[in-house]
Amino acid sequence: MKHELPPLPYPVDALEPFFDAKTMEIHHGKHHKTYVDKLNAALEKHPALQAKSARDLLLGLASVPDDVKGAVRNHGGGHYNHSLFWPTLKKGVQPKGSVVDAIAKQWGSMDSFQKAFGDAATGVFGSGWAWLALNKGKLEITTTPNQDSPLSLGKEPVFGLDVWEHAYYLRHTYNRAAYVQDFWNVVNWDQVEKNYKDALKR
Ligand code: MN
User: Fold this and answer.
1) How far is the CA of 23 from the centre of ligand 1 (A)?
2) Does some domain include residue 177?
């Protein structure tokens, strides 16, 4: 089984003016595609691993053979993280649902949560992700370097924000904080709610 690039679930300009069309086109069509292609190439010599989903590969990263562990971590992680990312983006969805209630309960308010998440996202040194994740049933804000997945750390991601420069440099240049601010305008809280409910069941 070859891994495949999932189609972007909206036109590349759907998130304008917050996330620009050119960035979305390159980010999905080039960066994400490269993770998929390099994951497939790395698994060519490992037919048993080819049958596994990216999710299962990352959950079992510790037992992946050494000669492909790095490729699975980086390219499998890149494929999984971006596949999770695209559907959580949509303009004009108001925060609502049980996940929003859980956030308010844990952080006091959506504003406090967004401040804490933003601090985590801007604080990632170099390339990586900021996450809202479920850790043993409790929500937490966490970060990972590069394309590392929370799955490999025993945590279920609910949503993540890609803070690689490739995600924002064309529109926001050096200003990652401005990109994080714009992100709050394109969070698809309906998808986040679905991810949260799925994560609770796992
Ligand atoms: Mn990316």
Assistant:
1) 10
2) yes
| Cα 35 from Cα 76, distance rounded (Å) | 7
Rounded (10°) CA dihedral 177, 143, 6, 184? -30
**Please, which residues have CB within 8 angstroms of residue 26's CB and are 6 or more apart in sequence?**
166, 170
Residues lining ligand 1 (ion), CB within 5 A? Answer: 162, 164
Q: Are residues 105 and 132 in the same domain?
A: yes
Question: What's the sign of the alpha-carbon dihedral 79, 81, 85, 87?
Answer: positive
On whether both 122 and 197 belong to a single domain, the answer is yes
Separation CA 64–CA 78 (nearest Å):
16
81 CA from centroid of ligand 1 (Å): 8
- Rounded to the nearest angstrom, the distance between the alpha carbon of 145 and the centre of ligand 1 is 12
State the CATH number of the domain containing residue 146: 3.55.40.20
Q: List, for residues 81-126, the tens digit of each pLDDT value.
A: 999 999 999 999 999 999 999 999 999 999 999 999 999 999 999 9
Say how many Å lie between the CA of residue 162 and the centre of ligand 1. Answer: 6
Instruction: Please tell me the distance between residue 190's alpha carbon and the centre of ligand 1 in angstroms.
Output: 22
Q: How many domains does the chain have?
A: 2
Note down the domain range covering 102. Answer: 98-201
Is this structure's pTM higher than 0.85? Answer: yes
CA distances (Å), origin 4, targets 7, 33, 154: 9, 8, 25
With H, G, I as helix, E, B as strand and everything else as coil, classify residue 18. Answer: coil
